[in-house]
Amino acid sequence: MKDILTAPFVEDMKRATANMYRQTWDERNGGNISFMLEEEKVAEYLDLNNVIRTIPTGFDATGLIGKIFIVTGTGKYFKNVEVDPETNLGIIRIAEDGTTAELLWGWKDGGKFTSELPAHLMSHMARLKVNPENRVIMHSHPTYTLAMNHIHELDEKKLTHTLWEMCTECMVVFPDGIGVLPWMVCGTNEIGIATAKKMEEFRLVVWGLHGIYGCGKDMDEAFGLIETVEKAAMLYMLATASGKRINTISDSQLWEIVEAFHLEDSVRRDFLDL
């Protein structure tokens, strides 16, 4: 059996968490990632019959029974994942009862999954119905995105439109727009349910005055979505700090981007004023 510490999915988690920490998106123990794994790939590194312990999830994840995830731990710092993945990460399988996680590896100090696990698993279930290739849910606290929350209306159409205006890349990367939730207490099933509902139509969901959720088929896709929003938010904050914006990308120009990149089937037309 291969060494689990050399597994590509462990390396993916190490790189992603280290990069997010260096970007200052995930201070202290902020942020969390869950990555759905292929059973046959995990079996190359772990005995899938060896359950270390079971951990109640606190909600019914029947739709994910048997699915295996590598997940960041509660109270764990992203900066430490790279140097000690076995303490800061865990690999879990959703048990037959749908409400229990079977620990297959990790959290060797007795830890457990992130408190946001219900929100992650609910979002996985929602995204799998939309796109069966979605495997990653990523949550972070990007600095400029959060700053923008304080001075911009938390309205899906208005926020999306403003970000689209900031640079040409935005329309190309997230033509489907950004979902927005008002401020809610984190770590609850309520915010998980609300996030999953938004994930039925958006790949990105802003948690008002808290952070953002992104999804994708792999780490790069999920990270790239959040990274692009953060860059646009930074441009917005820098531009507005200097005074009134003189130039912007117009709606007719945004539609030129849609046509040039053949995004007609994915763009949120109702977020444009044409």
Molecular structure report:
With 274 residues, the protein is of the alpha+beta class. It folds into two domains: 1-115, L-fuculose-1-phosphate Aldolase (3-Layer(aba) Sandwich), CATH 3.40.225.10; 133-274, Class II aldolase/adducin N-terminal domain (L-fuculose-1-phosphate Aldolase, 3-Layer(aba) Sandwich). It is 41% helix and 17% strand. It has eleven helices and nine strands. It has helices spanning 8-22, 39-42, 78-81, 85-88, 117-130, 143-151, 156-166, 168-173, 189-199, 219-241, 251-260; strands at 32-37, 53-56, 68-72, 89-94, 100-106, 136-140, 179-181, 204-207, 211-216. Strand 8 (204-207) and strand 9 form a beta hairpin. The model has no long low-confidence stretch (mean pLDDT 96).
In short:
This protein has 274 residues and is α+β, with helices and mostly antiparallel strands. Helix content is 41%, strand content 17%. The N and C termini lie far apart (59 Å).
Looking at the structure, the CATH topology of the largest domain is L-fuculose-1-phosphate Aldolase
Q: Please, what is the average pLDDT?
A: 96
What would the principal axes of the Cα set say about the shape? Answer: elongated
- Radius of gyration, Cα only, in angstroms? 19 Å
N-end to C-end Cα span: 59 Å
Main pleated-sheet profile: 9 strands, mixed
Q: Give the CATH H-level superfamily of the largest domain.
A: Class II aldolase/adducin N-terminal domain
Task: Give me the side-by-side strand order of the main sheet.
Answer: 2-5-4-3-1-6-9-8-7
- Structure annotation, total helices: 11
Number of domains: 2
Identify the CATH class of the largest domain.
Alpha Beta
Topology, number of strands: 9
